[in-house]
Write a structure and sequence with these properties.
The protein is of the alpha/beta class. The protein has 11 helices and 15 strands. The radius of gyration is 22 Å and the shape is globular.
């Protein structure tokens, strides 16, 4: 009898990667959910005896799904597959009942090993006993709609009078967002270890925008409070861009305390803290992107955008260097601390061809 298997992830790219990584010969009926609300409903319908669950999702995240499964005593076995690789994340999901934790991008051998170790899948391809708190009801076979075709991994070029404009299609944006999600998790893990905290990770925001729109893209960060920022250029084969790290000024005191600095309200100490954070977050995030795209980046020296200024002013002073850009925005928050830190990766328009070719290779 086929095992009802549910893959829950807000990324279409990630869902397909997980489906392709299932053990060979495993007789399963696969269903898909794009968020936790859908996942809970499908489990109640008997379509999720086994759940492969992402953590970072809209509407209802993976932690909330695990809490709901526990509270409602739903019959499912859960393996978490996430880009959030903080030790505390692993600890929290297992305390909520998850069998185990796998980091993204999912590794087929690792997934098979975990499923075998818990008896969820057997090499003899015999149905595993999936009873949780009693026997599960038998399930009818689920007929799946075909997986959505992989995007061409190209930003569509459209003619508009005498100019050629770039448009970021939804499927392509999804791919960039998933790559950013994994890279964000690598950087968040280093930040968590550095500060000995739990880093609350967002869903990365990905857009193809004009430089004039950068301030609007950062409207969630812009406030009455002043900020300080660092910019660091990077370059690879056919790809170039800049990374911006922006920290709210009110965050300095807490960051200094967590990093065991003797904090004094002076610009030199704050600049040192800002540089330390940028080295951790920018370096780790770029490494995460480069690993997934199988390319290396060389990083330039960090340059101070400004201290104690509005974000719009920081951007305005550097706008001449940026034209249309692929902008990836990640907002890091520290649990139980009013620390606000934003990281932006800005890829030049000329980089898009190489990046899209790399995406095509990744999705093959």
């Amino acid at each position: 009898m086929s095992t009802p298997l549910l893959i829950c992830d807000d990324s279409n790219m990630a869902r397909k990667q997980v489906a392709r990584s299932l053990p060979d010969g495993w007789d399963v009926d696969i269903s898909f959910a794009t968020n936790g609300v859908e996942a809970i409903e499908l489990i109640k319908q008997g379509k999720g005896d086994v759940l492969l669950l992402d953590l970072n999702m809209p509407e209802m995240d993976g932690y909330q799904v695990l809490e709901a499964i526990k509270a409602q005593d739903l019959p499912t076995l859960v393996v978490v597959i996430s880009g959030d690789i903080q030790p505390e994340a692993h600890k929290r999901v297992t305390s909520l009942g998850a069998l185990d934790f796998i980091q993204k991008p999912v590794n087929k051998e690792k997934l098979t090993e975990i499923l075998l170790s818990y008896g969820v899948f057997t090499k003899e391809n015999e149905p595993a006993d999936l009873a949780v708190g009693g026997a599960l009801p038998s399930q009818e076979k689920v007929t799946l709609a075909p997986l959505k075709a992989a995007p061409s991994a190209a930003v569509e070029m459209r003619e508009n009078k005498q100019t050629t404009e770039l448009f970021l299609e939804d499927d392509v944006r999804d791919c960039y967002q998933e790559i950013a999600n994994v890279a964000m998790g690598r950087a968040g893990d280093l930040l968590a270890r550095l500060l000995d905290v739990f880093v609350v990770l967002p869903i990365p925001n990905v857009n193809l925008i004009e430089v004039s729109e950068l301030s609007m893209a950062l409207s969630a960060v812009e406030s009455q409070e002043s900020t300080s920022g660092v910019c660091q250029g990077f370059i690879g084969a056919g790809v170039s861009g800049e990374a911006l790290l922006i920290l709210n000024d009110s965050s300095f005191r807490d960051v200094a305390s967590l990093m065991n600095y003797q904090y004094e309200v002076d610009e030199s100490t704050e600049l040192e803290l800002l540089m330390d954070l940028s080295n951790v977050l920018i370096g780790a995030c770029l490494n995460g992107v480069s690993e997934q795209l199988d390319m290396s980046f060389s990083q330039g020296h960090p340059v101070v955008l400004g201290q104690h200024r509005k974000i719009s002013e920081l951007i305005a002073n550097n706008a001449k260097k940026w034209k249309k850009t692929l902008a990836i925005e990640i907002s890091y928050n520290i649990e139980n601390y009013p620390i606000k830190c934003d990281l932006l990766l800005l890829f030049t328009e000329e980089s898009m061809k190489t990046l899209n070719n790399k995406l095509s290779y990744l999705l093959d």
